[in-house]
């Protein structure tokens, strides 16, 4: 029998990984068996799983590693009674006719999952019509099934923020609203600065005719990216023509249609900014079909969310990009929420990440005479 020393996590004998082998194929591993394998008391294992601060980080990690090795699953009902916590992060997913599935949101969720699984947290995903999201968020909090919420798809004067500030449930916003005080916890990238830098680079290369293929016009990140573009062009005495701006869902088909339309204008753009590499995929297809050479006849910069299946360096002509990882943002937001729930550490409540501007072959000097 393993030695035990009460519930002091600093004095527990370490478990041996080989002990896990006989449990890997077992259907059920209970708390008593897990504690014996680790050489820890049941109380310490339970406290480690429930985030009690008196359990040190090394012991908590040993317990979580053993949980993954053995497939142990705590009794959620008993855990909730003991701690008052559900062990879940809630999110509201907008869905309705005309709203297309979003690969960017999937990558962000993968980042959330990376961090949540380290602490045995679950997701509660509540679908909602966009016009009913405030009520859906309120119901989700009232259900008691979540310990915290994160908000995405920020809009101008987003009403969800004011509602959540009246509640006691922790939350973090991915993005920032526009037109309301930023006195709430958020993580955002500097969308204005990213597209200012991108447009300025193209203007410095001599381009005078610009186009912007953007996300939906009601989303805050799209508004800020257009603002950054307009600001950079204004500094060079240039304007962004409205007929050279498209707001849409960020799919390759929308990118293709927008670029196809721009190229048919009497004065087509020689410089294009895309809010996603997915949009850029369609835009490049239209450029190729028109017989134009990317980086020579027309230059393009896209925002790269670091999507694993669409790397800008793997395009036939590698894309110049502004870059910030959506997966890393998901990991960070989950870490902040879980740290708040379990009082593990004190982390910044407001973060604005700068993007990287990576120059590749898709940008070059403006064509002569244009």
TrEMBL record:
Domain HTH lacI-type stretches: 29-83
PROSITE patterns, alphabetized: HTH_LACI_2
Record flagged with keyword DNA repair: no
PANTHER family named among the record's database cross-references: HTH-TYPE TRANSCRIPTIONAL REGULATOR GALS, LACI-RELATED TRANSCRIPTIONAL REPRESSOR
Keywords in alphabetical order: DNA-binding, Transcription, Transcription regulation
SUPFAM superfamilies documented for this protein: lambda repressor-like DNA-binding domains (SSF47413), Periplasmic binding protein-like I (SSF53822)
Domain of life: Bacteria
The protein, known as: HTH-type transcriptional regulator AglR
Pfam family membership, one: Peripla_BP_3
Species of provenance: Shinella yambaruensis
Annotated InterPro entries: HTH_LacI, LacI/GalR-like_sensor, Lambda_DNA-bd_dom_sf, Peripla_BP_I
SMART domains registered for this protein in UniProt: HTH_LACI
């Amino acid at each position: 029998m393993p030695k035990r020393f009460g519930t002091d996590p600093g004095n527990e004998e370490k478990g041996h990984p080989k002990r896990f082998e006989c449990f890997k194929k077992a259907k059920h591993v209970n708390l008593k068996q897990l504690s014996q394998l680790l050489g820890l008391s049941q109380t310490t294992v339970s406290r480690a799983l429930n985030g009690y601060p008196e359990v040190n980080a090394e012991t908590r990690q040993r317990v979580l590693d053993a949980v993954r090795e053995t497939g142990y699953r705590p009794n959620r009902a008993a855990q909730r009674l003991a701690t008052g916590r559900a062990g879940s992060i809630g999110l509201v997913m907008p869905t309705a006719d005309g709203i297309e599935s979003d690969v960017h949101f999937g990558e962000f969720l993968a980042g959330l999952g990376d961090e949540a699984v380290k602490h045995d947290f679950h997701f509660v995903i509540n679908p909602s019509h966009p016009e009913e999201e405030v009520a859906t968020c309120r119901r989700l909090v009232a259900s008691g099934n979540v310990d915290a919420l994160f908000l995405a798809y920020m809009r101008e004067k987003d009403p969800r923020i004011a509602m959540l500030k009246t509640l006691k449930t922790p939350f973090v916003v991915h993005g920032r609203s526009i037109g309301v005080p930023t006195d709430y916890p958020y993580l955002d990238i500097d969308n204005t600065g990213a597209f200012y830098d991108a447009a300025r680079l193209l203007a410095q290369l001599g381009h005078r005719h610009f186009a912007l293929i953007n996300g939906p016009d009601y989303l805050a990140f799209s508004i800020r990216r257009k603002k950054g573009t307009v600001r950079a062009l204004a500094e060079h005495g240039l304007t962004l023509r409205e007929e050279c701006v498209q707001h849409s869902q960020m799919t390759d088909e929308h990118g293709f249609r927008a670029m196809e339309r721009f190229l048919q204008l009497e004065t087509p753009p020689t410089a294009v900014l895309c809010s996603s590499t997915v949009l850029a995929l369609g835009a490049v297809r239209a450029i190729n079909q028109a017989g134009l050479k990317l980086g020579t006849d027309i230059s393009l910069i896209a925002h790269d969310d670091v999507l694993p299946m669409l790397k800008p360096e793997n395009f036939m002509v590698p894309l110049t990009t502004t870059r910030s990882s959506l997966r890393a943002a998901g990991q960070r937001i989950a870490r902040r929420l879980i740290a708040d729930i379990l009082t593990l550490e004190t982390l910044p409540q407001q973060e604005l990440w700068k993007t990287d501007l990576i120059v590749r072959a898709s940008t070059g000097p403006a064509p002569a005479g244009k």
